[in-house]
Amino acid sequence: MDKPFLERLKTLTILYAEDEEGIRKNIAASLRYYTKEVIEAENGKIALELYKSEKPDIVITDILMPVMNGVDLVREIRKTDEVTPLVIISAHTDREYLLKVVDLHLEQYIIKPVTLNGLLEALSRCLKRITQTHTIVYELPCGYLYDVDHKLLTYEGEIIHLNKKEAGFLELLLHNKQRIVSYDELQAHVWQDDVMTDSALRSLVRNLRKKLPKDFITNLSGVGYRFEMC
């Protein structure tokens, strides 16, 4: 898995529907390691309600579920949405159901038992679909926007120039905005093969703060930085 793929996954929200709690919790835990958020549903009806309210980037669903099965869930979504990537998880015995959804533009179906490699392959296909249909844009406070694909920071339509390290620093904080990003992570993801000196880090943060409103970037001495999405 390459770095850009993993970074893009960290921006995505997944809706995952599965009625067997043990399976759902295990797979959801694996997905959470790679993605921004995983929303769980125990049947298709709840999944449909969550799809409408939460607007996830990807929907992954089992076929056989009570109340509303995965096939009906997919059909309902496709009535109004031709874009969101859909993945079905099925047993070998579910092939008759799969024949009913071949015309609904599934991104992939995964045969049980589900493996991590199978999940990541499906997410890779989904990400290609997402990249073709829309870009990921962070809405920042005070009217600022950051376009991940084009590395563009804008304010009221005006482009604010970022160099490569500034963009990398900002993205890393945005992808992990619920926590503090450590100095080791900054070295690995922003400086990479270069050496991150204290003066270079302070200079980058000082320059980036000039391009953003006051107090967007906060520092916990000796630990790292975080982005305040107030």
TrEMBL record:
<keyword id="KW-0902">Two-component regulatory system</keyword>
<dbReference type="GO" id="GO:0006355">
    <property type="term" value="P:regulation of DNA-templated transcription"/>
</dbReference>
<keyword id="KW-0597">Phosphoprotein</keyword>
<keyword id="KW-0804">Transcription</keyword>
<feature type="DNA-binding region" description="OmpR/PhoB-type">
    <location>
        <begin position="135"/>
        <end position="229"/>
    </location>
</feature>
<keyword id="KW-0805">Transcription regulation</keyword>
<dbReference type="Pfam" id="PF00486">
    <property type="entry name" value="Trans_reg_C"/>
</dbReference>
<dbReference type="GO" id="GO:0000976">
    <property type="term" value="F:transcription cis-regulatory region binding"/>
</dbReference>
<dbReference type="InterPro" id="IPR039420">
    <property type="entry name" value="WalR-like"/>
</dbReference>
<dbReference type="InterPro" id="IPR011006">
    <property type="entry name" value="CheY-like_superfamily"/>
</dbReference>
<feature type="modified residue" description="4-aspartylphosphate">
    <location>
        <position position="62"/>
    </location>
</feature>
<feature type="domain" description="OmpR/PhoB-type">
    <location>
        <begin position="135"/>
        <end position="229"/>
    </location>
</feature>
<dbReference type="GO" id="GO:0005829">
    <property type="term" value="C:cytosol"/>
</dbReference>
<protein>
    <submittedName>
        <fullName>Two-component regulator</fullName>
    </submittedName>
</protein>
<dbReference type="InterPro" id="IPR036388">
    <property type="entry name" value="WH-like_DNA-bd_sf"/>
</dbReference>
<dbReference type="GO" id="GO:0000156">
    <property type="term" value="F:phosphorelay response regulator activity"/>
</dbReference>
<dbReference type="InterPro" id="IPR001867">
    <property type="entry name" value="OmpR/PhoB-type_DNA-bd"/>
</dbReference>
<feature type="domain" description="Response regulatory">
    <location>
        <begin position="13"/>
        <end position="127"/>
    </location>
</feature>
<dbReference type="InterPro" id="IPR001789">
    <property type="entry name" value="Sig_transdc_resp-reg_receiver"/>
</dbReference>
<dbReference type="GO" id="GO:0032993">
    <property type="term" value="C:protein-DNA complex"/>
</dbReference>
<keyword id="KW-0238">DNA-binding</keyword>
<dbReference type="Pfam" id="PF00072">
    <property type="entry name" value="Response_reg"/>
</dbReference>
